[in-house]
Design a protein that fits this description.
The chain contains 19 helices and 22 strands. The chain is an alpha/beta fold. It folds into 3 domains: 150 residues, Rossmann fold, CATH 3.40.50; 231 residues, Aldolase class I (TIM Barrel, Alpha-Beta Barrel); 92 residues, no CATH class. Helix 17 runs antiparallel to helix 18. The longest helix is centred in the last third of the chain and has 18 residues. The model has no long low-confidence stretch (mean pLDDT 93).
Length: 565
């Protein structure tokens, strides 16, 4: 390379939304610059919702010699289309891609997309080696992990895997190589996983490797100095190493103004972990509890360790922590699983009261063992997002209903203002989920997330035919959400002036933290203790009349609810 002349590398980062960022840009640049400073780096951060023409214009203005990017199932097709269009206008640019999309057999992709020069299977460690041989394609077969086509022959470099101590990989935060101004940022404290779940890309690793506690402490300090107050750990299983997990939690508590997202295996939860989690301030912990399935046959078929009993026990302990928000994950379409098994899993989790139950149909990701050796009769979409279309025990219709059930959970159970209503309905009838799902399929679009008021009316119309108590409680939720009371015959009155001595008294059901003076009041009578059930859906039902007073402002905004008789 001529003295004083530096070629340009452009990293195109395409996220699913503005709030997301990738660690790969920072790691790739920091690691490469450790080996060579001969390159000038540029970075474009975009989303799949952005106008492709604008991105192509930005690319053309920067005139990069090399373009690289990390591909996931959500940005695969969008990104490849961009790269191919740019290549048509700039045939001399080199395009190299990496990421989870290239963990499998890459020959088909490269033959179908000749505008992509090469892809790397593995981590960032081989990128400097590729750059040093950029103008010598005959030596590309020396680069670990590099897959490419020369002439008619396909070359496969296996896996790029950094063999040294992970601390030797420079920190993207220490270097400042990240996109500023985003709601949250990711932090990597380990790589790999000791689990061998056949549907997971981490099953391809040789166990777990860890960054040192000192490295993590330095990263946290730097991130805090940069104003970062929400951190999502990208570790596959935060509590895989119990002792290390406890040490990290103690370190995290040194930053009481920061919110941490952790992925925890409920089967490995013990009392020491629970004790440490309880020490955090409220709303500073978001826990992803990976259940996936409680069907024993399915767990064995995908080589997932941990018994269903231990997972339930651990999840119950996690959900009992009042200061943590717990989300739990389920998968539909696993081998040896039927639709009724998916329903059973959901029903077992609801009484544990996680903040969310996230249900997704299985995806057959490139390079995973289940992709290389799919079970009998399993059929999946060959294009992103690679979802399972049918299995030996689940028909296409079963998997469609699983997708509907997922949307139902997202639209009702996972919504804070509707959660207790859904839990009450399930408490009243263990068949509520399948009944309500069938009702939604018949009377609405199961995949459409309607406005909250329409969702309440949907439950109300279902309940009128199935459960009068649920129908009446839905009216209380309607009023408590601030929707027009006239819909159900209630009429608010203007508050002229209330002296402190004349202020209404009663049992406080709800009070807003908004510093607003109420302008309207409304008295409503119910045939049971609707206010108590609104707050706690497992309360005993008191079948006598209860009166409530609602105080509102700015339309129907609820400021306070009292039980007055």
């Amino acid at each position: 390379m001529m003295p004083g002349f530096r070629k340009k590398i452009l990293f195109l980062e395409v996220n699913s939304s503005y709030s997301h960022t990738m660690l790969s840009y920072g790691y790739l640049r920091a690691f490469t610059e450790k080996m060579s400073r001969d390159w000038e780096w540029k970075h474009i951060c975009a989303t799949t919702n952005d106008d492709p023409e604008k991105i192509l214009t930005d690319l053309s203005h920067l005139h990069p010699d090399v373009i690289c990017g990390t591909l996931y199932l959500f940005n695969h097709e969008y990104s490849v289309d961009l790269f191919k269009k740019h290549k048509k206008e700039n045939p001399r640019v080199w395009i190299l891609l990496g990421g989870p999309e290239f963990l499998g057999n890459n020959e088909k992709f490269l033959r179908q997309n000749p505008d992509i020069n090469a892809v790397i299977r593995g981590d960032e460690s081989s990128f400097p080696s590729f750059l040093s041989r950029l103008d010598e394609p005959e030596r590309w077969n020396e680069v670990p992990g590099l897959c490419f086509i020369a002439g008619k022959k396909y070359y496969d470099g296996g896996f790029a895997n950094f063999a040294g101590d992970l601390d030797e990989i420079p920190s993207p935060y220490d270097k400042g190589y990240f996109t500023a101004g985003r709601p949250f940022y990711q932090l990597e404290t380990s790589r790999g996983c000791s689990g061998k779940c056949t549907f997971c890309t981490s099953s391809l690793s040789d166990g777990s490797r860890y960054f040192s506690l000192n490295r993590i402490r330095n990263d946290l300090k730097k991130m805090h100095q940069l104003g970062i107050r929400e951190i999502r750990m990208v570790d596959r299983t935060f509590n895989e190493d119990r002792k290390r997990g406890l040490a990290l939690l103690k370190m995290f508590r040194e930053y009481p103004d920061t919110r941490f997202h952790l992925e925890i295996n409920p089967a490995l939860v013990d009392e020491d972990l629970i004790c440490e989690l309880r020490k955090f301030n409220d709303k500073r912990l978001h826990i992803e509890a990976g259940i996936q399935s409680l069907c024993v046959k399915s767990l064995k078929s995908v080589k997932r360790f941990g018994s269903a009993g231990k997972m339930i026990s651990g999840l119950r302990k996690l959900c009992a922590i009042q200061n943590a928000e717990v989300h739990t994950d389920l998968i539909a379409g696993l081998p040896s699983q039927k639709f009724r098994d998916v329903l059973k899993d959901v029903k077992k989790l609801i009484p544990l009261n996680p903040h969310e139950i996230q249900l997704e149909n299985l995806k057959i990701l490139p390079g995973t063992p289940i992709s290389d050796s799919p079970p009998r009769a399993l059929v999946s979409n060959p294009r992103p997002p690679y979802e399972v279309l049918k299995t030996s025990l689940m028909t296409r219709n079963d998997l469609k209903r699983s997708a509907y059930l997922s949307k139902l959970l997202d639209s009702f159970l996972n919504v804070p203002r509707l959660q207790n209503l859904f839990r009450f309905a399930f408490r009243r009838d263990e068949q509520f989920i399948e009944k309500f799902l069938a009702y939604v399929e018949k009377n609405s679009d199961p995949m459409k997330k309607e406005h909250l008021d329409k969702r309440l009316l949907l439950i109300k119309s279902y309940a009128e035919m199935n459960d009068p108590f649920l129908a009446e409680l839905t009216v209380f939720f309607w009023l408590a959400c601030g929707y027009p009371p006239g819909k159900f015959g209630f009429k608010p009155e203007k508050i002229k002036h209330i002296q402190p001595a004349d202020s209404p008294t009663g049992k406080l059901i709800y009070v807003s933290d908004a510093k607003v003076i109420p302008s309207r009041t409304m008295e409503c009578q119910f045939s049971f203790n609707a206010g108590e059930l609104w707050n706690y859906p497992y309360a005993s039902i008191s079948r006598k009349k209860h009166a409530y007073q609602f105080f509102t402002a700015h339309g129907n905004r609820i400021l306070k609810i009292l039980e007055i008789g």
